[in-house]
Specification:
This protein is 48% helix and 4% strand. With 96 residues, it is mainly alpha-helical.
């Protein structure tokens, strides 16, 4: 996925990367691709945590936002898929 986002331009610069859910687009798009390919939910959550640990409320909220955005792109229900808790507002338990 990164080659899609980080394309080289004729002048040697790279394509401007946009943000999705407050993170570089490559991160959320990569999570969406993993969901689309039906990787195990634990693997998808671990991938989402690569750009921020859910070790406090802000960190978990960031990861949840990336998972929600990726779910929309992959057309997967995040709770049913198993990447969010039953309320849809946090990560599944247990996690650490």
């Amino acid at each position: 996925m990164k080659p899609f986002v980080f394309q080289w331009q004729p002048d040697g610069s790279s394509l401007k990367e946009y943000t999705i859910a407050g993170q570089g687009a490559h991160h959320v798009i990569s999570i969406a691709e993993s969901m689309y390919r039906s990787l195990l939910p634990d693997v998808v959550v671990a991938q989402a945590c690569a750009h921020g640990a859910p070790n406090d409320a802000k960190g978990e909220a960031d990861v949840v936002a990336w998972l929600k955005a990726a779910s929309l792109m992959a057309q997967k229900a995040p709770v049913a898929y198993g990447v969010l808790n039953k309320m849809g507002n946090g990560l599944p338990s247990p996690h650490s």
